[in-house]
């Protein structure tokens, strides 16, 4: 099976996609590096789940995105305003007329945290290492047949088939450029909690399993410079209790909380000294059903669960933190299918359960559901679903877990329903299907355990179609949406997240970017004087 990457439909491959060097990416202005940063301003980011699941940037594919985007950099960066790639480590790029050759010109004067220069050879070796790892989101480079160094600051990618490589190079996963010469054994080096990035911040300390899990400090030789007011230290703290997170924010002991309970978010908007932000996202709430074993192996039971969810009630109770889903891919990306917003249908659920021998008057059913600890929205879902299913003669045992533990359990098929969020690797629709519903053994994020060759065949046509025939790609997205939601009933999608952030009033310059969920680009912020 060959996993390819998708693209934004509107991208014009035949147009030159270069961007002027004077434009700086998010995270840094185009100015010369300054001397070592002064001051002791600290930015404290609270998270309800573990920060680090994987230290190796070639394999990283989870929560560490929030930290890694401050430590590592990619060739390009996705701009939510223009909805196009903009410069980051590359200052300009150009595809060939057939879209199979891409040449990137690199920013000069960039060094890794190891002190070595970031040049074309470093780009080549880091991407080749990521490709060979065949882990995480490394599939995004599947179209690449070779990488050539044309000079110290010029690198060329030869592709097997046309893809928008500038968009690929902006991915939040598997697109990091890092120093492959940081240590003789890079795997051991990364497992020790060390970094080899070029970003504005470098790792200062990591304490696995502790509340104050990760500390970053400003990299003095950062190419963007430190002439403006800035945060010198970034701390990532794991606080599963949402009430405690709220208290820490109120006391000024936390700078930023990416998610509060709806009631607390409403309060935060009225608290002097706090600021709030609400933005739509590409982040989808998913209830993945165990299609391979247990009672949910019966598609009738899975369809009954889809109908049992109180979608409208959840949206109302979320108080602005969620919007209705339609299809699998959120609105704003190729692959979105309108007119597919789910509705609760308890009569339909009852009929399906009875046909399977369960439901009122039938055999009692007991299901296990897991969700991420400290997420008030998941807790709301679990509570409402437990109440609804009780009336259908189903006992739902819901368990809040740290993400790493939940993920490990999921990979062992240890629950009937696994609840998680999903967002794209970069701003496209393919990864909602290719990573979550494409057959895979062992499963990584295919935690519904689908093994559907017909679905796989359709999915494998999408990446190239997205570039060569967007209308055909959209038609295929409609087919795979129907197969996943209707024919296989592998998932229920209760809402798409609206980001509701709360942070200290002295934090200036914060903007959400849906392509990098839950990431605060701390370099862009300005602390209160």
Key words describing this protein structure:
529 residues; alpha+beta; four-stranded mixed beta sheet; 18 strands; 26% helix; globular
Show the helix and strand layout.
Layout: E1 42-47, H1 65-71, E2 76-79, E3 84-87, E4 90-95, E5 101-106, H2 120-133, E6 144-151, E7 154-159, H3 165-168, H4 186-191, E8 201-206, E9 212-218, E10 233-238, H5 242-250, E11 256-257, H6 262-268, E12 274-289, H7 299-308, H8 311-318, E13 322-323, H9 346-355, E14 365-372, H10 376-390, E15 394-401, H11 403-411, E16 417-422, H12 431-434, H13 453-468, H14 470-487, E17 491-492, E18 496-504
Helix pairs in contact: 7-9, 13-14
Description:
The chain is an alpha+beta fold and 529 residues long. Helices cover 26% and strands 21% of the residues. The chain has helices at residues 65-71, 120-133, 165-168, 186-191, 242-250, 262-268, 299-308, 311-318, 346-355, 376-390, 403-411, 431-434, 453-468, 470-487, and strands spanning 42-47, 76-79, 84-87, 90-95, 101-106, 144-151, 154-159, 201-206, 212-218, 233-238, 256-257, 274-289, 322-323, 365-372, 394-401, 417-422, 491-492, 496-504. Strands 11, 12, 13, 14, 15, 16, 17 and 18 form an eight-stranded mixed sheet that branches. The longest helix has 18 residues, at 470-487. The model is unreliable at 1-36 (pLDDT under 50).
In short:
26% of the residues lie in helices and 21% in strands. By secondary structure, the chain is α+β, with helices and mostly antiparallel strands. The strands form 4 sheets. Strands 11, 12, 13, 14, 15, 16, 17 and 18 form an 8-stranded mixed sheet that branches. A 4-stranded mixed sheet has the order 1-10-9-8, covered by helices on one side. It has a 4-stranded antiparallel sheet with strand order 4-5-7-6, with helices on one face.
């Amino acid at each position: 099976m060959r996993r390819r990457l998708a693209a934004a439909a509107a991208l014009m491959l035949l147009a030159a996609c270069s961007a002027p060097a004077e434009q700086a990416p998010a995270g840094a202005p185009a100015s010369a590096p300054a001397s070592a940063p002064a001051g002791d301003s600290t930015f404290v980011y609270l998270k309800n789940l573990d920060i680090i699941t994987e230290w190796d940037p070639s394999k990283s594919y989870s929560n560490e995105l929030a930290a890694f985007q401050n430590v590592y950099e990619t060739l390009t960066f996705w701009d939510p305003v223009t909805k196009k790639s903009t410069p980051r480590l590359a200052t300009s790029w150009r595809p060939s007329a057939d879209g199979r050759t891409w040449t990137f010109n690199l920013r000069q004067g960039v060094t890794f945290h190891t002190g070595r220069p970031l040049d074309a050879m470093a780009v080549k070796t880091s991407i080749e290492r990521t490709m060979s790892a065949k882990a995480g989101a490394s599939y995004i480079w599947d179209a690449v047949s070779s990488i050539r160094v044309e000079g110290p600051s010029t690198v060329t990618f030869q592709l097997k088939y046309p893809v928008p490589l500038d968009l690929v190079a902006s991915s939040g996963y598997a697109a990091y450029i890092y120093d492959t010469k940081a240590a003789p054994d890079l795997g051991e080096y990364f497992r020790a909690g060390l970094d080899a990035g070029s970003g504005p911040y470098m790792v200062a300390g990591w304490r696995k399993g502790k509340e104050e899990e990760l500390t970053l400090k400003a990299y003095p030789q950062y190419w963007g410079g430190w002439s403006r007011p800035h945060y010198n230290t970034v701390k990532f703290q794991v606080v599963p209790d949402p009430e405690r997170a709220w208290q820490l924010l109120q006391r000024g002991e936390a700078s930023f909380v990416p998610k509060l309970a709806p009631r607390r978010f409403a309060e935060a908007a009225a608290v002097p000294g706090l600021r709030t932000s609400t933005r739509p996202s590409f982040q989808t709430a998913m209830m993945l059903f165990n299609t391979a074993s247990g009672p949910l192996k019966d598609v009738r039971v899975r369809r009954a669960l889809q109908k049992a969810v109180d979608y409208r009630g959840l949206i109302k109770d979320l108080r602005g933190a969620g919007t209705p889903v339609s299809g699998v891919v959120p609105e704003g990306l190729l692959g979105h299918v309108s007119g597919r917003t789910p509705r609760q249908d308890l009569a339909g659920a009852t009929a399906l359960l009875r046909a399977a021998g369960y439901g009122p008057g039938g055999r009692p059913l007991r299901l296990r559901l897991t969700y991420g600890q400290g997420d008030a929205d998941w807790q709301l879902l679990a509570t409402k679903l437990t109440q609804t299913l009780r009336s259908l003669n189903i006992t739902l045992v819901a368990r809040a877990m740290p993400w790493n533990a939940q993920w490990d359990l999921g990979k062992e098929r240890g629950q009937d329903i696994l609840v998680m969020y999903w967002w794209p690797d970069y701003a496209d629709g393919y990864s909602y299907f290719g990573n979550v519903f494409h057959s895979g053994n062992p499963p990584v994020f295919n935690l519904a355990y689908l093994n559907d060759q017909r679905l796989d065949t359709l999915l494998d046509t999408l990446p190239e179609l997205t570039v060569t025939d967007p209308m055909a790609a959209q038609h295929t997205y409609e087919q795979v949406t129907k197969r996943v939601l209707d024919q296989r009933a592998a998932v229920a999608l209760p809402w798409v997240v609206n980001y509701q952030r709360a942070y200290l009033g002295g934090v200036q310059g914060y903007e959400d970017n849906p392509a990098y969920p839950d990431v605060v680009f701390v370099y862009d912020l300005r602390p209160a004087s």
